[in-house]
Structures are given as C-alpha cells and as structure tokens.
Give the backbone structure.
Amino acid sequence: MDATDRRILRALHRNARLTNAELAEEVGLSASPCWTRVKRLEQSGAIRGYVAVLDQAMLGLPDTVIIEVMMERHDDDSLTRFEREVTAMPEVVEAWLVSGEYDYVIKAAVGGTAGVEKLLREKIYRLPGVRHTRTSFTLRCLKQTYTPAP
C-alpha cells in the first residue's frame, strides 16, 4: 500500500459516496488508474464494504448502552453459543471478546430504560453461562469513526 492508496482510503473514509471521477480528482489520478486501485483495495480486503450510517434516534432507539458480560465458564461451546446468540440480536450494534475482568463488551441501541431492561431480561440474562453484567448508559458521543483512516 502506497501513499496514493492511503489518499484513496482517507477520501473514501470521509465520503464513500464519491464517484470514481470525484475520487480520482481528489487524489490526483485519472479515472481508470483510480478505479483499478479501488478494486485492488476491495479485493485485498483493505476496503471491506460500504455502509449507510443510520441515525438511531430517528429509528426510535435514541440511547446507547455499553454492557459488560462476565461468563461462568470459558469452554469453547459456551463461548460459541453466547457469541452466536448475541450477534443475532438486532439491538446489538457491536460486540467484542475482551481481556480483563469481564469477558465481553456489547454496545447496543435501545429505547430508554425500558429498552435496556427488555434487552437484559428477555435476552442477555436468558443466555446460558452469563454470570454477571454491568451496564452503562452513554451520555453523549464525542467521536464516532469506524476505522482510523491511514
């Protein structure tokens, strides 16, 4: 990956809806070499996809909660089942297996305290192997990016 590839990635990171002609102009290439580089970046996995960023408040889910989950057991079957169930929950927007006191950190979009209670009581707490959770409401998003641009 060279400096031109990095310029392409930064430009697409800022605005993935740029046309190839706009992108080429921004990074100082002609259209054909720019298109070739973008396709190569996609094929290599450097660009994994393009998404629409939705406004969760407009979707009726104005609150974001961070849920830390401690598991009772750490065998492969328990962890695999937990991960499969959590990743299928539409409220869950991100989930990580982490080091430290808790085993997982989950970011979820909910509708207030009733939404988080429903998520916890009807879904998270019912998963086998969950020993303890700790939940925090986020107050304000200071920065949101999906990957640092190179």
Q: What stands out?
A: The first strand starts at residue 63 and ends at 71. Residues 31-44 form the longest helix (14 residues). The chain is about 40% helix and 20% strand.
